[in-house]
């Protein structure tokens, strides 16, 4: 829609240059588009007439002083008023006209009437959705407000608001190019204009799009909905729609008959969602989409699995047998949480299409970023930069869409270069209630979909009891996504026939709503009656369609009784062809050495210390960092940053895509990484040396994220889900900050394999360490991850030849706290070289990034070397174990504090220090070996975290299992506390000195009982 701005000539040199040649020093009008003048809504009430006269007289003085659309407008208006103004009159005549007001009244009135009509058109486009008939029940307002805009109440009120008369209803008015209601006609009577506007904007479709600041996009939407006759369907299309409604409704009816006392979160009240989703898929397939990834909550999931994904019905029905268990692997999950992957022929387009429904827990919107990440990965691997082959569809509930912040976080990823999926179609199942909560108590916005406005996504509200309106809206939504590569929202305003679930009694809390629902005629009957009445189908054909699908369900039900075991692998949403054996097991239980040839390390080090692009000016401070890397490479040593560089680079050489994402990861929160170099003289000119290692290397993606944890971690989890042959890492700015992503960690990462047999190799980098930086910048909360680890503290394992790899396969995730750059290098490479995928949690350092002792030699990284789960004492104590009086076990940064204190006290021969690099799964075999090396000595666990945090509660029972209660493991560390760290530097140092003194007080535990 054109938007006009009044530009006094004094406001800018550009306006002055525009107006000065014409001698106009009064006002001029400038349009932002090439269309005719837009209505000036305040012209009646706020002195707009005088402005209009000024503009009109400016045109009289010189037609070229105003926009050409105004020139055309005034010429036509003048002709209709029987004025001959084709040749502008001289200035002297203009002065006479100003004195004779009566001579211009007719022209002024005509101009104002045309502008009033344009204002009326704009009012419908902006606010028509507020009066649209969206609620199938007819008892609620979809926007939670019964107020009707005063300019849209009745025809009489509309005319009065715009200072028009009933006599004007039959007058012809010029239509602006910002509306398409005229079709091929340029003029319409006011009566017909109102009729067409109400038909477009005030029936069963409510359009919100005028907030979009792109004129082309607004025009596209107007044309799709305003053009006469656009919503016409052939008989065949109507019959297809009816058949899809039959399948949707009869599936729910069948489940209700067979399992009346089972929860299934049926779709009753929004059965139209099935044909809606199928329409989006059909239209997208027609435009070239080959892969559709869906995410949705539990309501209607079984119906979507059956009638959209087309999963075998007997597999679905098998889920209802209480005697069946998930026998293959893991705990399984309830049937309405499971996902599915299916390749089939789209019967409408006769094209291959892959459909994937991502498994989702009861956390409703948690799946949103996961779907987006998986979609992004599929696009990346297919080279689909524009999203023309792979797309995502997200189905939401109205209460969750408005209430859960991850929706907002996900929307804000939609246009970021490294996160965009080139548009998502969002379908909101608007039940007009959240469990038992009235929407008026559940949100402050008029619509549940208002969050989508932040990214200029058009929102199409539609009455779900009008199937044809729904189908048309969904078709337009699919076209929009393909045309503009932007998100779009379809709001299906419906109801929930049976309450929150089939066992729920909704009359407790919503009696009036459910009285109406009990009287409500189902949408299938309504639509069938309509088609029968118009002769599109006969009653017999309709009944045959129902009987046909009922037979299909009955046959599948009979087959489901023959299935004795539920194979949960049938419910995989992300199969990895060729990665596992046919039975889903790893191809081996071995892991090759993770070291690499020295020449590879040297080459990576040289590139990491250079700028591959010519004439690229880097910051002087960065030059020193690169010189330092070059010096380390010559000396065959690495620090933390260079070790990471070499791990990533060596995997890229082997064809493994590496993606690192998170807040400020390009430079690194602690300014240690610098994987993206910035030209100091040219804006946005950057260089990623990692992508200049080898000509045929895999691509490296490193991308700063939005300031989000929940959404971004979910996105990266989904990205890692798509392929096993990629190292996908998410780094928290500080480890503490992962707590806002706890839902993703709890629901998908920790439990994903057990619930859904979903292997995932996501890596979490969580900066961790007590360094006096305060309670929010110290602890990555290792105790939380260890508490959720599934290895049994009381089970003494059998130390078989493949114990290390078998133990990793049996665990739900791997938790490490590396103390050397070499360990970090190896554990990253092991993540890919393992024959399976497990999430990897790494507590990364802060001060160790630059600690002079925290360096590793190439000798610890070359071919033949591997990750050490435990690094034993290798100093004087190890050479004379018989003299050792105390063996201290620790992990991570505290090792360097212990070594320094031991040296200062001269206890190098009396105290041995052993590091656990891998904490979970617990290295029982190596701990046993290390303890046996020092028989009879005191065993101590030392950590810098408080006693009720960190690792002690996890390692203590496991030490007892492997060593027995005869040899206690004493705790040394900070006392229990509520906060994970102090914010006072002095307090931090005092507590550090205290526990170090205890660690090396060789009489500290004498006479004490365990």
UniProtKB/TrEMBL annotation:
UniProt keyword annotation of Transcription regulation present: no
One GO biological process term: tricarboxylic acid cycle
Gene Ontology MF term list: metal ion binding; oxoglutarate dehydrogenase (succinyl-transferring) activity; thiamine pyrophosphate binding
EC number(s) per entry: 1.2.4.2
Keyword set includes Transmembrane: no
Cofactor(s) needed: thiamine diphosphate
Keywords: Oxidoreductase, Thiamine pyrophosphate, Transit peptide
Reaction equations catalysed: N(6)-[(R)-lipoyl]-L-lysyl-[protein] + 2-oxoglutarate + H(+) = N(6)-[(R)-S(8)-succinyldihydrolipoyl]-L-lysyl-[protein] + CO2
GO cellular component labels: mitochondrial matrix; oxoglutarate dehydrogenase complex
Pfam families for the chain: 2-oxogl_dehyd_N, E1_dh, OxoGdeHyase_C, Transket_pyr
Primary enzyme class: oxidoreductase
UniProt domain Transketolase-like pyrimidine-binding: residue ranges: 638-851
Protein family (similarity comment): Belongs to the alpha-ketoglutarate dehydrogenase family.
PANTHER family registered for this protein in UniProt: 2-OXOGLUTARATE DEHYDROGENASE, 2-OXOGLUTARATE DEHYDROGENASE-LIKE, MITOCHONDRIAL
Protein name, entry field: oxoglutarate dehydrogenase (succinyl-transferring)
């Amino acid at each position: 829609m054109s938007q006009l701005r009044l530009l006094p000539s004094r406001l800018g040199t550009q306006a002055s240059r525009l107006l000065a040649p014409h001698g106009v020093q009064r006002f001029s009008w400038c349009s932002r588009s090439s269309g005719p003048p837009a209505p000036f809504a305040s012209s009646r009430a706020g002195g707009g007439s005088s402005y209009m006269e000024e503009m009109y007289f400016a045109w009289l003085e010189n037609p070229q002083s105003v926009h050409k659309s105004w020139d055309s407008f005034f010429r036509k208006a003048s002709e209709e008023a029987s004025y001959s103004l084709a040749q502008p009159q001289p200035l002297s005549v203009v002065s006479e006209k100003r004195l004779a007001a009566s001579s211009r009244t007719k022209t002024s009135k005509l101009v104002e009437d045309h502008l009033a009509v344009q204002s009326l058109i704009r009012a419908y486009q902006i606010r028509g959705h507020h009066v649209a008939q969206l609620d199938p029940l007819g008892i609620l307002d979809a926007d939670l407000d019964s107020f009707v805009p005063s300019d849209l109440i009745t025809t009489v009120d509309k005319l009065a608001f715009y200072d028009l008369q009933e006599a004007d209803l039959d007058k012809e008015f010029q239509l602006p190019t910002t509306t398409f209601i005229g079709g091929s006609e340029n003029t319409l009577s006011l009566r017909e204009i109102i009729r067409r506007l109400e038909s477009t904007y005030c029936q069963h479709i409510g359009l919100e799009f005028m907030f979009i600041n792109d004129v082309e996009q607004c025009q596209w939407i107007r044309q799709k909905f305003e053009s006469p006759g656009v919503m016409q369907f052939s008989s065949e299309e109507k019959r297809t729609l009816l058949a899809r409604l039959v399948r949707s409704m009869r599936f729910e009816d069948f489940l209700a008959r067979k399992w009346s006392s089972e929860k299934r979160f049926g779709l009753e009240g929004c059965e139209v969602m099935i044909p809606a989703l199928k329409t989006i898929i059909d239209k997208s397939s027609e435009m070239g989409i080959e892969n559709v990834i869906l995410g949705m909550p539990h309501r209607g999931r079984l119906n979507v699995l059956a009638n959209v994904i087309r999963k075998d019905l007997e597999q679905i029905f098998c889920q209802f047998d209480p005697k069946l268990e998930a026998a293959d692997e893991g705990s399984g999950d309830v049937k309405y949480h499971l996902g599915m992957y299916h390749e089939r022929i789209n019967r409408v387009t006769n094209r291959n299409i892959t459909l994937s429904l991502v498994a989702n827990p009861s956390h409703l919107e948690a799946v949103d970023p996961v779907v987006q990440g998986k979609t992004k990965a599929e696009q990346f691997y297919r080279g689909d930069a524009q999203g023309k082959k792979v797309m995502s569809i997200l189905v939401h509930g109205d209460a969750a869409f408005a209430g859960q912040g991850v929706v907002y976080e996900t929307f804000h990823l939609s246009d970021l270069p490294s996160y965009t999926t080139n548009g998502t179609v969002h379908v909101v199942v608007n039940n007009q209630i959240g469990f038992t909560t009235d929407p008026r108590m559940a949100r402050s916005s008029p619509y549940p979909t208002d969050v989508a406005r932040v990214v200029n996504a058009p929102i199409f509200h539609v009455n779900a009891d009008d199937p044809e309106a729904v189908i048309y809206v969904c078709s337009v939504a699919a076209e929009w996504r393909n045309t503009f590569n932007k998100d779009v929202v379809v709001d299906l305003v419906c109801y929930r026939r049976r309450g929150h679930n089939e066992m729920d009694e909704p009359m407790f809390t919503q009696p009036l709503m459910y009285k109406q629902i009990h009287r409500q005629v189902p949408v299938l009957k309504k639509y069938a009656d309509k088609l029968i009445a118009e002769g599109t189908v006969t009653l017999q054909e309709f009944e045959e369609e129902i009987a046909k699908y009922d037979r299909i369900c009955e046959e599948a039900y009979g087959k489901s009784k023959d299935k004795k075991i539920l194979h949960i692998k049938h419910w995989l949403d992300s199969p990895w062809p060729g990665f596992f054996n046919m039975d889903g097991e790893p191809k081996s239980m071995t892991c090759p050495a993770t070291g690499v040839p020295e020449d590879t390390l040297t080459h990576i080090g040289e590139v990491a210390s250079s700028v591959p692009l010519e004439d690229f000016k880097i910051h002087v401070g960065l030059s020193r960092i690169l010189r330092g890397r070059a010096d380390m490479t010559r000396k065959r040593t690495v620090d933390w940053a260079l070790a990471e560089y070499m791990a990533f680079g060596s995997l890229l050489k082997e064809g493994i895509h590496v993606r690192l994402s998170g807040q400020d990861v390009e430079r690194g929160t602690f300014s240690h990484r610098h994987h993206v170099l910035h030209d100091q003289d040219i804006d946005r000119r950057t260089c990623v040396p990692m992508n200049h290692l080898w000509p045929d290397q895999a691509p490296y993606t490193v991308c700063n994220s939005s300031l989000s944890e929940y959404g971004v971690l979910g996105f990266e989890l989904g990205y890692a889900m798509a392929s096993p042959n990629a190292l996908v890492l998410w780094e928290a700015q500080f480890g503490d900050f992962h707590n806002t992503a706890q839902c993703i960690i709890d629901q998908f990462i920790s439990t994903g394999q057990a619930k859904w047999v979903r292997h995932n190799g996501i890596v979490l980098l969580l900066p961790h360490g007590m360094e006096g930086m305060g309670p929010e910048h110290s602890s990555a909360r290792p105790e939380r991850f260890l508490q959720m680890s599934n290895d049994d503290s009381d089970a003494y394992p059998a130390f078989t030849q493949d114990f290390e790899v078998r133990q990793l396969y049996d665990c739900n995730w791997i938790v490490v706290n590396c103390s050397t750059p070499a360990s970090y290098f190896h554990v990253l490479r092991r993540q890919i070289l393992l024959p399976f995928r497990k999430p990897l949690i790494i507590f990364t350092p802060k001060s160790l990034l630059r600690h002079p002792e925290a360096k590793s030699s190439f000798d610890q990284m070359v071919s033949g070397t591997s990750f050490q789960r435990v690094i034993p004492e290798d100093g004087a104590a190890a050479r004379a174990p018989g003299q050792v009086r105390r063996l201290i076990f620790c992990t991570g940064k505290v090792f360097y504090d212990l070594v320094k204190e031991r040296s200062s006290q001269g206890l190098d021969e009396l105290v041995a220090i052993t590091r656990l690099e891998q904490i979970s799964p617990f290295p029982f075999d190596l701990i046993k070996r290390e303890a046996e090396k020092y028989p009879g000595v005191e065993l101590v666990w030392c950590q810098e975290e408080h006693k009720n945090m960190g690792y002690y509660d996890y390692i203590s029972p496991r030490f007892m299992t492997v060593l027995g209660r005869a040899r206690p493991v004493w705790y040394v560390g900070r006392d229990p506390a509520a906060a994970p760290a102090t914010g006072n530097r002095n307090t931090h140092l005092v507590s550090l000195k205290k526990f170090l003194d205890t660690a090396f007080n060789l009489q500290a535990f004498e006479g004490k009982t365990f």
